[in-house]
Amino acid sequence: MDLSYYMELMGVAFFAISGALAAAEKKGHHNDIFSAFFTGFITAIGGGTLRDITLGNYPVAWVRDGNVLWAIFFGFMLTILFARYWVRIRKALFLFDSIGIGIYTVIGTKISLGAGVNPFGSVILGMVSAIFGGVIRDTLINEVPLIFRKEIYATACLSGATLYIVFDYLNVDKNWNAGFSVVLVVLIRVVTVRYNLSLPKFKLPE
Amino acid sequence: MDLSYYMELMGVAFFAISGALAAAEKKGHHNDIFSAFFTGFITAIGGGTLRDITLGNYPVAWVRDGNVLWAIFFGFMLTILFARYWVRIRKALFLFDSIGIGIYTVIGTKISLGAGVNPFGSVILGMVSAIFGGVIRDTLINEVPLIFRKEIYATACLSGATLYIVFDYLNVDKNWNAGFSVVLVVLIRVVTVRYNLSLPKFKLPE
Amino acid sequence: MDLSYYMELMGVAFFAISGALAAAEKKGHHNDIFSAFFTGFITAIGGGTLRDITLGNYPVAWVRDGNVLWAIFFGFMLTILFARYWVRIRKALFLFDSIGIGIYTVIGTKISLGAGVNPFGSVILGMVSAIFGGVIRDTLINEVPLIFRKEIYATACLSGATLYIVFDYLNVDKNWNAGFSVVLVVLIRVVTVRYNLSLPKFKLPE
């Protein structure tokens, strides 16, 4: 239990870093330190907050627990202080990001099932938890959200959430289940990016 | 009662179709099948979810009732399988869409009145139910939302919601009231598009 | 108490005016009177509504109290009727806008503290109350939100909210505290715009 709490805080800090970096990379913006903090904040709490207000699950995590905000602040300070290093370790960042969305997917699916949501809805809310922070961030900085770009991203979350629910139904041990599901999300992202795979297109005939 | 439930599911499926088609038509996007599903999902549940979380009306419809999600999935499958036909029946689609927003307007207004909201607020929430799925969809795919474009769209919903409240106050039979209000929304849309009418402009003097 | 209620309604009307003007100024839009009303509405209620649904603080102000909607309608009518005058008093408008965000910051911080939110979270929610109406408005009309542009805007709110919490902790009289905090927000905005100050940039090294 304790471990999963610290994992969650790590996930929060990591999303804050990736959000702050996204703001700093955006061209043609006035990229000041507030924008970096704010986009980090939105990225870290957007998905979970949207899940909680959709479920009526009050109080929302960052409102209840000041540590979530300090984790964001910590991630923000790391981003500012070590800016030059983040650029060099882009590949490691991609892996961390994948682990982060895996963790968020599993937490979101688990909370939704626990709130009595039907399995289909829980899969959707697991995905929402993982990706909507980034969707809101991209929309605010006026970019096409990552989920509409080529990378298989949301589909990895849908797969991980589905695996979690199937294993939960089969009474697989909760910790193993969480582990397997996170690994599946990470694997799908890594393999599809490595081999440049994408989902089938859907265009209307002219 | 039963009938209105099936009408609502039909409305959901229809919005899922119109959302999926909007994604597929967007130029310069990577239009994969996930994007089609996701924009359909957002279009179908966005307005009602925003209404319910504004009212604190939990659990939100699609979280409580898995059938809403299956209706979306059904609409999505129809879109994929019959893509070539949708393009041909554009005019019928416009009519279906108008009926859909009419139904959503009436349902949203009725739920808001039932929750004790004042009439002005209920008119606004009726409109929000009908149009905000499309607004969120357009914002995510980085378009100017339809409500800010030329077509009289939101104003048709405001009119239908106002009629519903006036008739409700006058104790008109609920089913007739719902019918008249939907017809008013549809009529305003059809007539204004047919005769190319628009609201008065409001620009600041230079 | 009564006074603060009327101050809030004035703030609402003022935000409705600034929102309606923002819509009318946007180039390349179809700026009709509905767009003006709707952007005014979103600007006026967006931040407070997001704060209330994040806190689970139901019913949301404009849903409970029809006067909030009439204040928006009143602001909208003023905008339409006196359009030519607003353009002339741009400097006064900037001052009114700053007072408006100051008031919203203090109200949001106070409500959050009262709901038992930790100080860091209350500062954030005070800022959210003041700025998110504008953020949603800018996102909908497809502009880069003001908070990502050069002006020091959100940071002024963060400072005002922090002062309010420190003074609250020191048991400063509530009315004086509110007054001082609003003045701080206004001062920071006026001084930074007057002397063209901005926050330090944060860009990634190439």
Question: What's the helix and strand layout?
Answer:
The structure is a homotrimer of 206-residue chains.
Chain A: H1 2-25, H2 33-55, H3 61-64, H4 66-81, H5 83-88, H6 90-114, H7 119-140, H8 154-169, H9 174-194
Helix pairs in contact in A: 1-2, 1-4, 1-6, 2-4, 2-7, 6-7, 6-8, 6-9, 7-8, 8-9
Can you count the beta strands of chain A? 0
Domain module tally of chain A: 1
The helix/strand order of chain A is: HHHHHHHHH
Structural class of chain A: mainly alpha
Low-confidence stretches of chain A: none
Biggest protein-protein interface?
A: A-C, 36 and 32 residues
Overall mean pLDDT score of chain A?
87
Cα-atom Rg of chain A, whole angstroms? 17 Å
Distance between the termini of chain A: 54 Å
Count the helices of chain A. How many?
Answer: 9
Oligomer, anyone?
Answer: homotrimer
Please tell me what the overall shape of chain A is: globular
The percent range for strand residues of chain A is under 5%
- Biggest beta sheet summary of chain A: none
Percent range of helical residues of chain A = over 70%
